[in-house]
Design a protein that fits this description.
- The protein is an alpha/beta fold.
- It folds into 2 domains: 126 residues, Aspartate Aminotransferase, domain 1 (Alpha-Beta Complex); 216 residues, 3-Layer(aba) Sandwich (Aspartate Aminotransferase, domain 2).
- The chain is 41% helix and 15% strand.
- Strands 2-8-7-6-5-3-4 form a 7-stranded mixed sheet, sandwiched between helices. A 4-stranded antiparallel sheet has the order 9-10-13-12.
- It starts with 6 loop residues before the first helix and ends with a helix.
Amino acid sequence: MKIEDFGVEIWMNAHETTCRLNIAETCVDSITFAELMQMAGKTQAILGELNALKLTYGAIEGTARLKQAIAALYTGRVASDVLVTHGAAGANALLYGALMEPGDEVIAIVPTYQQHTSIPESLGAVVRPLTLRIEDGYQPDLVALEGLITPRTRLISLTNPNNPTGVLVRDEVLAGIAEIAARHDLWVISDEVYRGVNQADDVLSTSIAEIYPKGVAVGSMSKAFALAGLRLGWIVAPPALLHQVMIHRDYNTISVGMIDDLIASIALENREALLARNRQIVRTNLEILARWVDAEPSISWFKPTGATVTLLTYDLDMPSREFCKRLLDETGVLLVPGSVFGVEGTVRIGFGNGTETLKAALPAVSAFLRKHGR
């Protein structure tokens, strides 16, 4: 099976451990184990739980405790609708493996995380892109969406909130996607790893799994929950589909780690406190970023409504990869070139990282823009 190079991951692998100021990071500033246990009131009790944990494969589909905690994130969902996976990346790969046949067609709302285009293509599917436009506030055009459907269309995919724009699909638009999918009996895969750190309120945004019977939600502990080190994700979907996914999962993941399962359970059982901490970081940083954008004549954007990332359009006569490489070499600041998402003339910035890192990096970016400006 041949597959395209994974642009954003190759870029991050090459530079994230050697840069001086990483504002390309997509996760909320990671919480420590000690901070999480203090938040959960388990500083003393956790050692007993760990000592009693027999390190077997454990529950292959995820423990009942964890699956119930995940199901509680979704209105009307129960533990039997949940499958625990090795990160959201594992979830996405398993879903396409279970759903795609050569010749099938996928409508991918782009820009997006590259898994949602390259994996189906590698399986012999045809990907039909629906491109988000900044003039539409990065909301999907429903008329254009329906116009892409053919008799071979199998599913629609999206990231919501969107990666890389950081925009949350409005509820009425999400409902429209569900209605179109229902008319044509299509699956909808919604990669919702940034769900939980929205800007407008403190409630979890609407999930496709809550409003459409063939809606499939993918989640993760990495982004909104600030626990990327667990490498733990999940799928929320009808049990019949999960059964098909499990057939594929038996060939690669088997189970996630028992310790990861336990820590994720504790985190989700204390999700309100954890998300409150993470929303504060994201909202503080976004206001810092917004003030910088307002004062920076070479930068424009559509202000994100969710997630921890957004696209910045720059007024500089150089391709985005050159922009980011020269910025890194001259200042030590790491951004992601928009070209890896198919959006040239932009860069992706993360605003979930440590606040002091963001404060230190933005003036360096401004100096770079002045130095190389038109």
